[in-house]
Specification:
Catalytic activity: GTP + succinate + CoA = succinyl-CoA + GDP + phosphate; succinate + ATP + CoA = succinyl-CoA + ADP + phosphate
Family: Belongs to the succinate/malate CoA ligase alpha subunit family.
Pathway: Carbohydrate metabolism; tricarboxylic acid cycle; succinate from succinyl-CoA (ligase route): step 1/1
Largest sheet: 7 strands, mixed
CATH architecture of the largest domain: 3-Layer(aba) Sandwich
Strand order of the largest sheet: 3-4-2-1-5-6-7
Shape: globular
Structural class: alpha/beta
EC number: 6.2.1.5
Helix content: 25-40%
CATH topology of the largest domain: Rossmann fold
Strand content: 15-25%
GO molecular function: nucleotide binding; succinate-CoA ligase (ADP-forming) activity; succinate-CoA ligase (GDP-forming) activity
Order of helices and strands: EHEEEHEHEHEEEEHEHEHEHEH
CATH superfamily of the largest domain: Succinyl-CoA synthetase domains
Distance between the termini: 21 Å
Number of helices: 9
CATH class of the largest domain: Alpha Beta
Length: 289
């Protein structure tokens, strides 16, 4: 089992014929993802990577039955791409694009509220269900099948956690990179909840970073509703206050935004917090029994 994407997902690529779209679509196909086509306005009717190209998401959905879309559209047009996908009936939208203006994402959040759609990202590595489907830019070979879910704000730490989990003799059910922007589609808590409700996920790794309150909200939800062990890590221990670090959302605005404060909250909520990503796999193996 997995959440969000699996071997039956029919995936289209928005920005299919561009450099990034082409490279990562090839990687996704090689992984075994069911990529059924792509969208590049003005290139409809062409073929790319032996898949059809469509002018609009609506055309792609009509022809292929696509239910998942991954977006490699430049920042200025990415919000329109997300809304177009939602309007066409796509159920899971993965927005890889970094640098989408905050004002645009406010419009997107308002537009898709109430719709039957899950937005992952933007500014994220995507979603991968080991052995089934990769809808993102992560190195697929790191992710071996298993029963541990990963939720992470950081792309590279998603891969690192997966590597540590596999080295500890465990494997991955689904890893969700939620993205590091101030406004994202799926929060830490929502992603943790998906994995907590997945019958074939036995434990969850939750990776956060300085800035915002997503980890605190998730930790309190786990305290009230969790029935599986959660191992947590917060990046940015040495970040100077008031400086954005790596991600647009990674900026300490108040006392509870620091790594130390977040780790204290997580520990109080029963999460097994580690101080180094190198300890994630060992700790999970220990707490899962």
């Amino acid at each position: 089992m997995s959440v969000l994407v699996n071997k039956d997902s029919k995936v289209i690529v928005q920005g299919f014929t561009g450099k990034e779209g082409t490279f990562h679509a090839e990687q996704m196909i090689e992984f075994g993802t069911n990529v059924v086509g792509g969208v590049t306005p003005g290139k409809g009717g062409q073929s790319h990577l032996d898949r059809p190209v469509f002018n609009t998401v609506e055309d792609a959905v009509k022809e292929t039955g696509a239910d998942v879309s991954i977006i490699f559209v430049p920042p200025a047009f990415a919000a329109d791409g997300i809304m177009e996908a939602a309007n066409a009936g796509i159920k899971v939208i993965v927005a890889i694009t970094e640098g989408i203006p905050v004002a645009d994402m406010i419009k997107v959040k308002d537009y898709i509220s109430g719709m039957d759609v899950t937005l992952i990202g933007p500014n994220c590595p995507g979603v991968i269900s080991a052995g089934q489907a990769k809808v993102g830019i992560m190195p697929g070979f790191v992710f071996k099948e298993g029963r541990i879910g990963i939720v992470s704000k950081s792309g590279t730490l998603t891969y690192e956690a997966a590597d540590q989990i596999v080295k500890a003799g465990l494997g991955i059910s689904t890893a969700i990179g939620i993205g590091g922007d101030p406004i994202i589609g799926t929060t830490t808590k929502e992603a943790v909840e998906l994995l907590m409700n997945d019958p074939e996920t036995d434990g969850i790794v939750m990776i956060g970073e300085i800035g915002g309150n997503l980890e605190a909200i998730a930790a309190n939800w786990v305290k009230e509703n969790g029935n599986k062990p959660v191992v947590g890590f917060i990046a940015g221990e040495t970040a100077p206050k008031g400086r954005t670090m790596g991600h647009a959302g990674a900026i300490v605005g108040g006392a509870e935004d620091t790594a130390q404060a977040k780790k204290a909250i997580m520990r109080d909520c029963g999460i097994h917090v580690v101080d180094s990503p190198a300890e994630i796999g060992v700790k999970m193996a220990e707490v899962i029994g």
